[in-house]
Amino acid sequence: MKTRYSIFRYLLLFAFFVCGSVANAQLPNEKFGKPSSMEWEFSGWGDAVGADAIVLCKTMNVTYQLLDQVSNYNQSDSELGSDNITDFSKNQIDDSSILVKYEFRLRTKILKPEGAKHANIDIVYFNIDDKRIISADEITDMKVRVFTKNEKGKVEKRNVDVTSFESERVDENYMVIHVNVPDVQAGSIIEYQYNITSSRPSFLYDWVFQECIPTLHTKCDIDIPAMLQFNMNAPINKLIKSNVVVGQLAYDVNRSDLKRAKTCWTNHYTIVGDYILPEGMQMGRNQNGAGGEKEVTAEKIANFTSKITNPNVTLPAYIPEGSTHLKIK
Question: Which of 5, 81, 94, 299 qualifies as a FRET site for 113, CA 20 to 30 Å off?
Fold first, then answer.
């Protein structure tokens, strides 16, 4: 009998552990289209409890699309590798044969009625105001969804009409799309997603880790061909973790005489931030040296920025550097 009780107790503890692990695995949730059960229950952490709204997840994935002309120009037959990458990087790089593909995702939860204003965001993108120059980043596949629970606890999804969003010019180089989401209430979860195709391979958009509301999880993932050399300036902060590994990227080859797609080496950067509070938000009190208490506030976290360093890349004078693309109001 005692043995049977011990086995039952072990199975009960094991089931509790598994259920807890599954629940924790739902946060952070980088899958878009359906908020997890934990996200519906989640109302913040530590000093973030009591906020008007929170960012549940915000990601930017960046990849390069290398057209066949780049492959033909720099390397006729062999696959790019570590033995010839040095010679390859000495060649002049043609920007017109390289595109940058961005995927942006954002999920925000409104916790209080006064937090409804944080459902509105601004999207800044490159667009030159010069009829003589046709150069602009293209925004595609924009979707905005509002998830709410009705009185019976059933999740209802509403798609926001993206054609209703207003655009205006910021300056001679940038435009902004004002994404205003109506009829948002406390408890609503809003998802935003859109893609950008840019013909500016020498410039990358900055990435903001710290918003005006608490951020549970934010990630920037960039896969850059090794032929393009950037200075990557990730913020130095205990809440930010960065990593870089060597990867590979296949060319968009449309030649039938090639038996396999050509590839090039890449530098794959991943920068992740978790549990980030807005700058200046109170974090409680600590004991000071005199035996009293002092207020502690969240420090400022710098943006992730990058700058091209290739001596062999021709940079058109009219193209500005990357700008912060996304801002929560």
Answer: 299
Strands in the chain per DSSP E: 53-66, 98-110, 121-126, 138-149, 155-159, 166-169, 174-179, 189-198, 215-225, 230-233, 240-250, 263-276, 282-287, 293-297, 305-308, 326-328
Give residue for tokens 């590994």.
245
Q: Give the model confidence (pLDDT) of 63-122 as tens digits.
A: 998 875 554 444 433 333 444 343 444 444 556 678 899 999 999 999 999 999 999 999
Six token digits for residue 178: 């004002």
pLDDT digits (tens, 9 = 90+) for 245-282: 998 888 775 555 445 567 788 999 999 999 999 988 88
DSSP labels, 173-230:
SEEEEEE---S--TT-EEEEEEEEEES-TT---BB----SS-EEEEEEEEEEETTS-E
